[in-house]
């Protein structure tokens, strides 16, 4: 599934929920294994982006039947300071209201 740039932005803005996964993400195989998995109430359907801190996946919120973005944190960065920033980012994103 391919999502255009505007679609990616829309999904990021609509990312009202984040899930934390400590799955290994250092290999392409590990990234691909996430697609099709369910984390909590979110079914991972594709990858939107990847950076130094982790990977952002396109997912479906199964309880509300809507598209969301799920950011997973690179487990190598899972120290207290990084986790605090990650949770702060999730809190800020949860406050977004995008039509």
Topology:
Layout: H1 5-13, H2 28-34, E1 38-39, E2 42-50, E3 54-61, E4 66-73, H3 80-94
Antiparallel strand pairs: 1-2, 2-3, 3-4
Q: What does it look like?
A:
This protein has 99 residues and is of the alpha+beta class. The chain has a single domain (5-94), classed as Phosphorylase Kinase, domain 1, CATH 3.30.200. It is built from 3 helices and 4 strands. The protein has helices at residues 5-13, 28-34, 80-94, and strands spanning 38-39, 42-50, 54-61, 66-73. A 4-stranded antiparallel β-sheet has the order 1-2-3-4, covered by helices on one side. 18% of the residues are buried.
Task: Summarize the model shown.
With 99 residues, the chain is of the alpha+beta class. The chain has a single domain (5-94), classed as Phosphorylase Kinase, domain 1.
Write a concise keyword list for the protein shown above:
four-stranded antiparallel β-sheet, single chain, 4 strands, alpha+beta, disordered N terminus, Phosphorylase Kinase, domain 1, 99 residues
Show unreliable segments. Answer: 1-6, 12-27
The largest sheet, given as strand count, sense and whether it forms a barrel, is: 4 strands, antiparallel
Q: How many helices in DSSP terms? A: 3
Query: What's the number of structural domains?
Result: 1
CATH architecture descriptor = 2-Layer Sandwich
Structural class of the helix and strand makeup? alpha+beta
Radius of gyration: 13 Å
